[in-house]
Amino acid sequence: MRPANLTIIGERINPGFALSKDLLDRRDIPGLQSLARGQVEKGCDYLTINVGEKAQRDTAFLAEVIRAVQAVVDVPLSFDCPQASVQEICLRTYDAAKARGRKPIVNSISELRWDMREVLKIQPAKVVLMASERLENGQKIANETSLEIVRTARRMMDRLLSNGLGLAPDDLFVDVSLHPIATDTDGLIRKAVDAIRLLGGATELRGVHLLVGLSNLGIMLPKVALDGSRLSVQIESAFLTLAMPYGLDTILGTPGRAYRILPADDFVFQGFCEAIQLEGIDALERLRRLYRRDES
Q1: CA–CA separation, 94 and 91 (whole Å)
Q2: Nearest-angstrom CA–CA distance, 89 and 81
Q3: The pLDDT value given to residue 170
Q4: Which domain holds residue 241?
């Protein structure tokens, strides 16, 4: 059963998925509409719109996709693009009335692209704050600790809420970023969980939503765990089980996927919790014990 209070931003209209890339390459508007309807029928709360490089080369097509999707579904849209010029087209095209008056999401603003905030003047919108990087002395710096993530999120939140844009904490989503667990030898998943814990416990951030791109977590994993469960789904559910009590409430994910809160004695949950406490080859070896029998 889907965890209570979990908001899902449907991710499938994105050229990173083979089906979506084919539909976008062929400019198959009915196919994209069908993909949008399917995600809504499976329970997503928002729909991502990401047309890839076409967004800059063919703004008319981008606007056509937005209008076509809004013609068949009434959930608000989330515009996934780092260029302010593209976000401007998205917000000028988006019709809030067709989403029952609900605001779209601008995904995303970071300290490295702070000019993106100007598009928030076009119409009321929510915004994703990318807290995995910061601007320091004019240089891009990757945030390597949970405290750096929290400090960056606080700075961006303070600046946006005091910027006269009419934003409230409920309009903000802090993205702490997730990396594939199959290659995590540096404890990055553990740091993401710790950042969520710190952000969720910060009184000055109360009301702000915490978000991750959950599908990133299970990339490159085998399909099935030793206990017969779907490994990537269970790994994603393990992360939710660990992070939601700390305040995680929103994911970029696949509607209809069997996300659930796992019991403490679940085979994959136990292995996940142990693996993220380790680093280097030890972390990978513990993860492999979820899908590879010990041959010793």
Answers
A1: 5
A2: 11
A3: 98
A4: 7-288
